[in-house]
Every structure is written in structure tokens, then in C-alpha cells.
Specification:
Elements (H helix, E strand, L loop, with lengths): L23 E4 L3 H12 L4 E4 L8 H4 L3 E2 L6 H18 L9 E2 L2 E5 L2 H16 L5 E3 L1 H7 L9 E5 L3 E2 L2 H14 L3 E3 L4 E7 L2 E7 L2 E4 L2 E4 L5 H7 L7 E10 L9 E3 L3 E5 L5 E5 L3 E4 L2 H16 L4 E4 L23 H4 L9 H14 L8 E11 L6 E4 L6 E5 L5 H17 L28
Parallel strand pairs: 1-2, 1-13, 2-9, 5-15, 13-22, 18-19
Antiparallel strand pairs: 3-8, 4-8, 5-7, 6-7, 10-11, 11-12, 14-17, 14-18, 14-20, 15-16, 16-17, 21-22
Helix pairs in contact: 1-6, 1-11, 3-11
Length: 448
């Protein structure tokens, strides 16, 4: 059982010629990078998108496929609602079916305390026009019949969407390519080329590209890239295990989660399964360095993370991964084209058991695929969307903390506006890079 996008199994789709110059270079072929490149190209700029491995080969293709407004940090909600609208537009422009469907997202409450937390979040939904509502036990059973477990209620957002990540993001790349973006897979950016404190180009494994504007949207690799450029970013990557079942009887058309299991109906009539509220963190140099920034998050959710002693060789925070290199050196990004961690086998067994227990009528649950992804996360669980003031010409979009697939088109539109110097249409104060060193207290958003 393997993930469908990998260096070994997926041939290079995009191999545009390596240009000598560009107006903007986007680093990273995930959903945020692809959408940023698309919006920049549609404004008339010459855009190059460089991906060290494959489009959507890492977390953008490995996520749950939820496109949710529900439970968002209030500072993200306006952007997410915009992203919801953009997803619908982009789905109509693709040349494949990305499985986009409005099927809703539901958080199942197992205690009155959880229902109170959901009730408190409802004020944010109302302020942004999101159609969330609270359900009582009878309404939960009407929405998702035949569950063996009883719930005290739920938070439900009918307007939320779902899509198939490993289909959707490559399809968006197709739109970008047709819009004029030069996409080069299997081409790592080694470092920036700077003069007098500003960007004058980038150095790739294939050579140099002259440019004055770079967008870094490299997911779990962003912190490592920035450290080589002398910029500290307290970003860590946590491992999440996901599984895809074979086709099963229909139990619910949308996405839902409780404290044990998260599930989503897929276009192939199977379900994507994940452990609700559980992830794993490899302890490496960056983890120890960033720990003080993450202390508030650990206090808020002390049992949500399992700590592992060391990352596999070549991972961004592995003990042996270089932190410094030059444009003439083979970079860590070339040594590991696609970050492909192994899923947790115990969690896979738990997911099969828990889904079968929740829906006894489905019978034995068999998996057709299983994988893990490294989720780039920030101390306050919201991303950085900002210019890097220490390096003129560098714009950063990273640390989407497991929320990036859904919000990606909105974040891409905003990053493109930042590059152009246009009005972004949202207050980005919460997402500034300087919040980690200007004395600001880490403010964790609503944990829903």
C-alpha cells in the first residue's frame, strides 16, 4: 500500500526549459505555490515554478481533502471563505474531475465541554457569514445514521467542500501551465542570489535564473531553506498517518471527526481515514531550538503529539541534515526529492478497527492505500503570509499547520497580491513573520 504520487512511480509531467530570467520565481509545487504562480501569471508576469520533486508529491497531495471553513482561526476565516469560492471557480477550469463536492464538515462532540467550545466558535462563523450550526443528538443521527456511538451533539457546516488532493493539485498545475507558468519538476532551488541585501536571482541545480522576486512556499522544507539564508523560522513538521479504504457501503457523504477517527467519503466510494487529534514529531535540532515558541501549544494540547527520538536520514530536521551549503553544493533538497515518511502501522490497524466499530454495517474494513505526510506547523497554528524584511524581494507562505489544502487558493491569491504590491483585501497582521521575535505572546486560535 503506497501513496499514489512518488518519485519512483510518477514520471515528470512538467519539464519546461530552465529560463535565464523571470519576473517571479515560485519555490514549491504544493497547492499554495501552484495557486500563487497561477494568479501571478494571470496578472501578466513571467512566472517560473520550481519543484524539487513532483507537483503535490508531499503534503498537498497527502492531506485529508477537507476544504473547510468550520473551526478556523477567526483571522483565517475571511481568507478561507474566499478560498471556498475560488475552489469552485478553479474546478470548472480543470480538464479532469477533481472530486469537488459540497458535502459539509461535521465535528462530533463527545462531551458538554466540547459542545461549549463549538458554541463559542459560532460567533466567528456568524461574523463571517459561514453557515455553521450546532446539532443536537437527534440531528446528529439524522445527518449520519446508524452510528454505533452516541454523541451529545455536533458542529456542522453544510457549505464546506471536499476534493481529491492528489488529483486536484496536479489539475490546478495544469491550469497554471495553460496560463503561461513555466513549471519545472525535479529541479531544486539551492539558494538565493543576493546583492546589497536584495534578491537578484536564484541558483538551482540546473543553473541560475535572474529575478528580483521570489515566493517561498516550500512547506516542510521552508525553515531549512531560510536557515541557509540566515533567517530563523520556528517551523516544525509533524507526521500524520492517513489511509484509503476500498469501496465501502455509503454511510455519509461528507467529512466528520470525533476524538478517535476522522473520515471523508471519496469519489471512488471509499473513505479516507485518519486519527483525530493525533500526530508525531521527530525530535531534531530545530525542534529543540524552537521549543520555547511551541510551549504554549504544548500546554494547550499536551497529549496530542507523540515524540520520536530522531528523524530518518535526509528529513528536514534530521540530525545529519546540513544547515549550510552554497550554490555549488548538492543541497538537501536534491538528496530527498520527495519527503515520503512511513505511516504508523499501529494507527492503521486502529483506523480500520475504529471505523468498523463506528459503522458495523460496513463489515470488515480493508485498505487500498496508506501513507504519511509531514505537516509544516507554526507555534500558534496559523501560517506566515508576509514579506521577509531581511531579504528584499522574498515573500513567504508557509506553516499552514494542516490547513493548507483548503485555504491554498486564497493564500495563493494573497501572496500574488503581496508580490505585486496590490491591496490583499485582508488584514494579515496575525500572519506576519515578525510575531516570533517582536515579543508577541503566542496566541493559539480556537482548537476546533
Amino acid at each position: 500500500m503506497t501513496f499514489p504520487i512518488s518519485e519512483a512511480s510518477t514520471p515528470v509531467t512538467y519539464s519546461a526549459s530552465h529560463p535565464d530570467e523571470a519576473d517571479v520565481v515560485v519555490i514549491g509545487g504544493g497547492v499554495v505555490g501552484v495557486c500563487t504562480a497561477l494568479f501571478l501569471a494571470e496578472s501578466g508576469l513571467r512566472v517560473v515554478l520550481l519543484e524539487k520533486g513532483r507537483i503535490a508529491g508531499e503534503q498537498s497531495g497527502r492531506n485529508w481533502g477537507w476544504i473547510r471553513q468550520q473551526g478556523r482561526d477567526p483571522d483565517e476565516l475571511g481568507i478561507m471563505s474566499e478560498a471556498n469560492r475560488i475552489w469552485r471557480d478553479l474546478a470548472a477550469r480543470t480538464d479532469v474531475d477533481i472530486g469537488l463536492m459540497q458535502a459539509g464538515v461535521t465535528y462530533l462532540a463527545e462531551s458538554d465541554a466540547e459542545m461549549q467550545k463549538y458554541a463559542e466558535w459560532m460567533s466567528h462563523a456568524a461574523a463571517h457569514g459561514v453557515d455553521s450550526r450546532l446539532l443536537d443528538p437527534a440531528q446528529v443521527q439524522d445527518l449520519i445514521p446508524n452510528m454505533s456511538r452516541g454523541y451529545v451533539g455536533a458542529l456542522h457546516t453544510p457549505g464546506d467542500l471536499r476534493a481529491e488532493p492528489w488529483v486536484a493539485v496536479p489539475a490546478l498545475a495544469g491550469i497554471a501551465a495553460r496560463a503561461g507558468v513555466s513549471i519545472v519538476e525535479n529541479c531544486a532551488v539551492r539558494c538565493l542570489d543576493r546583492a546589497a541585501g536584495r534578491i537578484v536571482g536564484i541558483v538551482t541545480e540546473q543553473g541560475r535564473i535572474a529575478t528580483s522576486q521570489v515566493v517561498l512556499a516550500a512547506g516542510a522544507w521552508s525553515s531549512l531553506f531560510l536557515r541557509n539564508e540566515g533567517v530563523a523560522l520556528p517551523q516544525l513538521s509533524v507526521l500524520a498517518t492517513v489511509a484509503a479504504t476500498v469501496p465501502l457501503p455509503h454511510v455519509h457523504n461528507g467529512a466528520a471527526t470525533d476524538n478517535r477517527i476522522a473520515f471523508r467519503r471519496r469519489a471512488d466510494c471509499g473513505y479516507s481515514l485518519a486519527a483525530g487529534g493525533f500526530h508525531e514529531l521527530y525530535l531534531g535540532p530545530d525542534a529543540f531550538r524552537a521549543f520555547p515558541k511551541f510551549l504554549e501549544q504544548v500546554k494547550t494540547d499536551p497529549f496530542g503529539t507523540r515524540f520520536l527520538p530522531k528523524a530518518p536520514k535526509g528529513f528536514p530536521d534530521a540530525w545529519g541534515t546540513p544547515r549550510r551549503w552554497s550554490g555549488q553544493d548538492v543541497s538537501p533538497f536534491e538528496r530527498m526529492r520527495i519527503l515520503n515518511p512511513a505511516p504508523n502501522p499501529k494507527k492503521l490497524n486502529d483506523l480500520k478497527r475504529d471505523f468498523a466499530a463506528l459503522f458495523p454495517e460496513v463489515g470488515e474494513v480493508s485498505l487500498k492505500a496508506a501513507w504519511a505526510g509531514m505537516i509544516d506547523t507554526m507555534p500558534d497554528v496559523v501560517p506566515v503570509i508576509d514579506h521577509v524584511t531581511a531579504i528584499e524581494g522574498l515573500t513567504l507562505g508557509t506553516g499552514f499547520s494542516g490547513h493548507g489544502f483548503g485555504i491554498g487558493p486564497g493564500a495563493g491569491r494573497i501572496l500574488a497580491a503581496l508580490v505585486r504590491g496590490d491591496d490583499v483585501g485582508h488584514d494579515l497582521t496575525r500572519f506576519r513573520l515578525s510575531r516570533f521575535d517582536d515579543g508577541s505572546k503566542m496566541r493559539i486560535g480556537p482548537s476546533v
